[in-house]
């Protein structure tokens, strides 16, 4: 409650984090989840490291450190402006590639399964970055995923239908640009010392973040990394996202800014469900259809199963 109260002074609007209406996400690994292999869990639900990225769907990233790992798991920040200046001086071709609006970003709940956008853009004098390597290009559905429902017209084909096949793969040049971007961000990183109880608020458009791999302590004891994530937007002070970066943002904040949904033609359902504040993570891990996406606006199964926007699959 204290975390949410302080967060309300940073941003007066909270974003929806998934199609179930959850307003909080638990960045942790519950002991019972380890029965599910890492490859079937989202990156934030494993002990693996994560490259530099930002949450493609929020203005301010808010994190509350409930517990820290017994070993590793440090959070690192890197300034978008610093990375930009380094790329401009030494890697101009990479900077041009990042600013070109031809990056396929996979989405859900829309007739098209992706849109094309730049990863770096100026607006009102602000350099803004919207980049998550796990959200770029084609993401393949888990073969082990078991859907709970299918539109009746799909029949048995629903089990093999993967709309992500429509999404273009990244080019060699784009993959090289991402590698260079992450390398430069890593060289200019600022490590954030954290203790249980700390809160971190990040301008998500201007700062990128990454995570070291970590090792949790014994079950039921201290030293088990557990962060709570909230997405925020302040109607007076937050930067207004450019149209090219607004689709994931509208998915999170469209319940307060419905015009943004109409402008982007993006997801609708998560703006209609009841909002939930789960105090603790679920004990049983539900295997998602897609595990791609290091953090925000992950393609989730329930979106793909909605027959309002799912096109017919070909056998």
UniProtKB/TrEMBL annotation:
Keyword Oxidoreductase: yes
Annotated TauD/TfdA-like domain residues: 31-231
Record key words, sorted: Oxidoreductase
Domain of life: Eukaryota
GO molecular function term, any single one: oxidoreductase activity
Gene3D superfamilies, A to Z: Clavaminate synthase-like
PANTHER family on file: FAMILY OXIDOREDUCTASE, PUTATIVE (AFU_ORTHOLOGUE AFUA_4G13850)-RELATED, GAMMA-BUTYROBETAINE HYDROXYLASE-RELATED
Protein name: TauD/TfdA-like domain-containing protein
Gene (UniProt): 20354493
């Amino acid at each position: 409650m204290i975390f949410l109260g302080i967060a309300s002074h940073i941003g007066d609007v909270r974003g929806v984090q998934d199609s179930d209406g959850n307003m909080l996400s638990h960045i942790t690994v519950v002991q019972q989840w380890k029965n599910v292999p890492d490859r079937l869990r989202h990156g934030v639900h494993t002990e693996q490291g994560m490259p530099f990225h930002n949450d493609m769907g929020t203005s301010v990233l808010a994190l509350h450190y409930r517990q820290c790992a017994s070993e590793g798991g440090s959070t690192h920040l890197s300034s978008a402006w610093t990375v930009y200046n380094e790329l401009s001086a030494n890697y101009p071709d990479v900077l041009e590639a990042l600013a070109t609006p031809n990056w396929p970003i996979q989405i859900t709940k829309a007739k098209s399964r992706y849109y094309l956008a730049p990863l770096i853009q100026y607006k009102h004098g602000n350099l803004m970055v919207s980049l998550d390597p796990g959200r770029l290009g084609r993401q393949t559905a888990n073969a082990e995923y078991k859907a709970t429902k299918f539109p009746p017209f799909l029949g048995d084909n629903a089990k093999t239908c993967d709309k992500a096949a429509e999404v273009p793969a990244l080019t060699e040049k784009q993959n090289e640009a991402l590698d260079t971007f992450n390398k430069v961000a890593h060289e200019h990183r600022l490590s954030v010392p954290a203790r249980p109880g700390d809160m971190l608020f990040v301008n998500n458009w201007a700062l990128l973040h990454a995570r070291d791999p970590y090792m949790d302590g014994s079950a039921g004891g201290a030293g088990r990394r557990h962060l709570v994530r909230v997405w925020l937007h302040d109607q007076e002070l937050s930067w207004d996202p450019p149209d090219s970066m607004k689709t994931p943002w509208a998915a999170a904040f469209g319940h307060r800014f419905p015009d943004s949904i109409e402008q982007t033609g993006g997801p609708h359902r998560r703006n209609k469900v009841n909002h939930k504040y789960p105090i603790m993570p679920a004990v049983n891990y539900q295997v998602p259809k897609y595990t791609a996406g290091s953090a925000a606006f992950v393609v989730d199964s329930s979106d793909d199963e909605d027959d309002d926007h799912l096109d017919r699959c070909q056998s």
